[in-house]
Amino acid sequence: MAGLNYVTFNQDHSLLAVATTRGLRTYTTDPFELSNHSTDHDISLVEPLFSTSLVAMILTPRLLRIVNTKRHSTICELTFHGMVVAIRMNRRRLAVVLEEIVFLYDISNMKLLHQQLTPLNPAGICAISPSSENNYLALPHYQKNVTGNAQAQPGHVPRSVAKEAISGDVLLYDLNKMEEVTVIQAHQTPLSSIAINSDGSLLATSSEKGTVIRVFSIPDGKKLYQFRRGSMPARIYSMSFNATSTLLCVSSATETVHIFKLAPPGQNPHSASHHPSNPDSSPTRETHQSDTSSTSGTTLADPDDRASDSSSPTPPTTSSNPSRNPKPNNPGLMSFVRRTSQNVIGPSSFVSRLATGGYLPASVAEMWEPQRDFAWVRIPRGNSHNSGGGGGGGGGGGGGVESNTGGSSSGYGGAGGGAGAGGGGGGGSGGLRSSVVAMPNHLAVPHVMVATSEGEFFVFTIDLERGGEGTLVKRFGFVE
C-alpha cells in the first residue's frame, strides 16, 4: 500500500496530482478518473503545469526533477543545497522554495533569474499567479537587519536559529519585470497560508491563528475584504478562489470548509443577498455555528482584526441587519441570564447601526461585525470503503452520492504545506485531517472539491442564492 505524501490541484483545478511513496498519480477531476500513474520513485512534492504533461517533482529532499509524464522522460534535474519545501509554477516561471530562499527560473530554458531571501519558511508558504500576464509571486517578507550588520548574531549560533521567523507581512514580486512590487501588512501574527486568484488580481491571506481571512488587490495591496472563519484558532490548510473570483473557499483543521462571497465593486458584501435566507432559524446553521461562533468580547480581542487597518483602505461598510436569535418558548434560568448578559455586553446591533450611519470608522465597525461565510460544507468521517456515503454531517447520506468503493487509503500522515494537503494531521478517524480545496472552473453550478490526507476526494454542490450547507454529491478514494 502506497503512503500519501502530498496532494495538490493544478492551476485550473482540472487535475488532482498525488505524490506517494510509490510514485505519482494524476486524476482528472471531472469525471474523477486516473489519467497517469508511475511507480518508480518515492515523491515528496509535486506540481503539475495546467493540463500538460509537464510535471515538477521532488524525489530526495534536495533533488528537483521535471518530467514529461506522457513520454516518461526527464527534462531537467537540479540539486539544491538545502531541503526543498515547496514548488510553484505557471507557464513562464518556476519557483523552488527552500527554507530560507526562493530560486526563480525561466521555465522555457530553466535559466536562473533571481534568488529571493525569505524568513524561516519550513512550511513552504508561497503562491504564484496562474496568469502569465499578471505574473506575481507572493511569499513571506524578509525583514533585513535594520543596522545593516550581517554579523550581529554570535558566531556559534547556526544561521537557521539566528534567522528571523515569519511575520504577518507578504512580499509581492513581479515575475515578468523581476522586481519587488510592494509589502502588504496582512496580519499581526505569522502567516500560515496565501493564495492568488486565476487572473492574478487578488491575494488571500491567513495567519497561524486562522480566525481571520483577508483579501487584497494586486498589485497595489489594498485590503478589499475581511472574513471571519471562527473565534477558535485553527490551522488553515488551503484557500482557493473560483474562476470568476466571486467565491473563496477555505479549509482548516476543523471538519468545516467555509465558502465566502466576494461582492463585486460597489456592492455591499454584507447585504442580505449575500447570506443564506433566515440562517438563524436553520438547525444546520446552529450546528455550524458551534465551529465558528464568537462573542463580541472574543471578536474585539482578536489582534488580527486590528492588523493593517491603518495601512489599508477602508473596507466595505457592514450590514445594518444584525442577526437576532429567536427566544425559546420556555426559557430557563440560564437562558434568561444569557439574554440579559447579551443586552449588557453584546452591543453588536448598536455598533452596527452606528457604523452604517457613518458615526464609526469602518475599521472599528469591522471589528464588531466581521463578514462570515455564506455557505459551508462538512467533510465526512470514515473512508470510501464504507458503502452508502457520508458520515460526519456533510450532507452525504446514502442517496444521491456517487461513490467509488475501491482504492481508498486511510491513516496516512498529512502531506506538505502550501497548496498540498498539508503539514498537519492524518491519522485514523479520530485524528485531524489536512485537506486541499478547489472550485471547478467549467461548471455552471458552484461545486467545491476537497481532497484529504486520508486519500479521499469529495465533491459538494452549494446554492449560490441561498447559501447554507452544501450537499455531498460525489465521493471517491485515491491511492491504493
Automatic annotation (TrEMBL):
GO terms for cellular component: vacuolar membrane. It is found in: Vacuole membrane. Residues 309-331 have a biased composition (Low complexity). Residues 387-401 have a biased composition (Gly residues). Keywords: Repeat, WD repeat. It is a peripheral membrane protein. Residues 262-335, 379-409 are annotated as: Disordered. Its main location: membrane. Residues 268-282, 290-299 have a biased composition (Polar residues). InterPro entries: PROPPIN, WD40/YVTN_repeat-like_dom_sf, WD40_repeat_dom_sf, WD40_rpt. The keyword Repeat applies. PANTHER family: WD-REPEAT PROTEIN INTERACTING WITH PHOSPHOINOSIDES WIPI -RELATED. Belongs to the WD repeat PROPPIN family. This is Autophagy-related protein 18. It comes from Hortaea werneckii.
